[in-house]
Amino acid sequence: MKLAATAQDHLTVHTVPVPDPGDLIARLPHPTALAWIRHGDGIVGWGEAARITLPATPDRFTAATTALRHLFDTADVHDPLTLPGTGPVAFGSFGFDPTTGDSVLIVPRRVLGRRDGTAWLTTIGDTARTPTPATPLHTPTRLHWTDGALPEHAWKHAVTTAVDRIRHGHLGKVVLARDLTAHADTPIDTRVLLHRLARRYPACYTFSCDGLVGATPELLIRRTGDHIESLVLAGTTARGTTTTDDHTRAARLFTSTKDREEHRYAADMVRDALTPLCHHLTIPDEPTLLTLPNLTHLASPVHGRLTADHTVLDVVAALHPTPAVCGTPTTTALDLIRELEGMDRGRYAGPTGWIDARGDGEWGIALRCAHINGTRARLFAGCGIVADSDPTAELAEATTKFRVMQDALHS
């Protein structure tokens, strides 16, 4: 584990109530934005009071909790509000695979938040520090697209191989992802993407952390005191072109044996992972339909009460990776992903979100996202593969999922 030079030995934290700031994303002064927004509420941050870089190891969540506990326990905190997200906060993004790629936690110098009508500003570090000037928004005018690790025909072959392994009993499900790369004529401004994503997908969690930007529909875990919430998403169809077509597609999804099986795998795993941590847990017997502007998902809301003082990162560690982004059995599916995808996912499909000093926080799965690096954006999309999967249909689903970030870059 590395604690970057931007960290101070002793953080000074001041949270104060402020008038409603309006659009939180519009308040971000720089492209290097930190954000977690849904329906206009949430938190945004900028600057760095501390950065914790965690190498790829199976115990990275434990290491993160230990480092943050030291940082937060030694902080001098003035927080009259004591709401989830007030006081010291760290934004985080973890790699999907515990054996490759770093994970990161960032404690910003400024956090602006709003929750249930209450707004606040948190200053971390030297309150007398002169803020750096805001930079104007800038939007690329031209984009050039290239295939990622696997072109379409090679990815369809990977799906065929996965289906064959499943039918021979090697595993029950695997999630295979693709990547695409966009090359822009000027640096890509994270704030522009956040504006577009939050406007088009208000019910999703629009996020940004260390270059990873997206709008995920999947809430991995929310902790507020001893209460936890999660949302299982598995089983997907594109929206229809007419109202009748849309209803037909949704009904077909709800009764699909393939999609219901995929959803059952994910819901069962969440139940198995959370039961040891909770003295009360409710997961519905039947999924519902979650309708987004471009996709409809099978969804199961989860609620529980923790048995002990587990932080939100403790629960994240128990859940990741879910069958919705990996497969089942987990170890077999992860091995097959490494064999067939031909790429390192990085932080795609890993947990992303925030945690405060009380251990509260919200974490989602980094889906419908892109990693931004200067003029380059690497997009990701994945599909759950089971015994009845058709390679052409899975490619079409992945193409639909790419459109979230493609539209954000093109609009």
From TrEMBL:
Gene source species: Actinomadura pelletieri DSM 43383
Family annotation (PANTHER family): ISOCHORISMATE SYNTHASE ENTC (PTHR42839:SF2)
Keywords tagged on the record: Isomerase
SUPFAM superfamilies: ADC synthase
UniProt family annotation: Belongs to the isochorismate synthase family.
Catalytic function, reaction form: chorismate = isochorismate
Principal EC category: isomerase
Annotated InterPro entries: ADC_synthase, Chorismate_C, IsoChor_synthase
Gene Ontology MF, one: isochorismate synthase activity
NCBIfam families reported in the protein's UniProt record: isochor_syn
Domain Chorismate-utilising enzyme C-terminal per the UniProt entry, residue ranges: 153-401
Membrane-spanning intervals of the chain: none
Keyword Mitochondrion: no
EC number: 5.4.4.2
Name listed for the protein in its UniProt record: isochorismate synthase
